[in-house]
Amino acid sequence: MAHLSITNAAAEQIHRVLDERGHGLGLRVSVKPSGCSGYSYVLDFADEAANDDVTFEEHGVTVFVAPEALEMLDGSEVDYVSEGLNRFFRFNNPNVKDQCGCGESFSV
């Protein structure tokens, strides 16, 4: 069975954005072919669940994963980090074999 974990920092940010939006079920994660290394993460907020979504719940939030991305994301941790003035969701993904220098894309 696939596993995806959500840090407390990521959960707090998901809660914060959903509260600001005033609606939504959680964070939706998928991947798309992109960049110089092969794939990039696609993040959006889910307003409804698709029939084939795989869901992961932790710290009171739900992350919806597209089935075609599940194998690439299995075992990943979703985190929310601050680096200088930048704040963003980061994936600690054990399946990544290589990523581009700018960190925008990865290969598995």
Describe this structure as you would to a colleague.
With 108 residues, the protein is α/β, with parallel strands linked by helices. It has one domain: Sandwich (Hypothetical Protein Aq_1857, Chain: A). It contains two helices and nine strands. The strands form three sheets. It has a four-stranded mixed β-sheet with strand order 3-2-5-4. It has a three-stranded mixed β-sheet with strand order 1-6-7. The longest helix has 14 residues, at 8-21. It is globular. It starts with a strand and ends with a strand.
Spell out the key features of this protein.
single chain; 108 residues; alpha/beta; four-stranded mixed sheet; three-stranded mixed sheet; 9 strands
Structural class: alpha/beta
CATH class: Mainly Beta
**Distance linking N and C termini:** 19 Å
Main sheet makeup: 4 strands, mixed
**How many domains is the backbone divided into?**
1
Instruction: Spell out the CATH superfamily.
Output: HesB-like domain
Which stretches are poorly predicted, pLDDT < 50 over at least 5 residues? none
Number of helices: 2
Overall helicity: 10-25%
**In the CATH classification, which architecture applies?**
Sandwich
Strand segment count: 9
Q: Gyration radius, to the nearest Å? A: 14 Å
- The CATH topology is given as Hypothetical Protein Aq_1857, Chain: A
Strand content: over 45%
Strand order of the largest sheet: 3-2-5-4
Kindly state the mean pLDDT as a whole number? 87
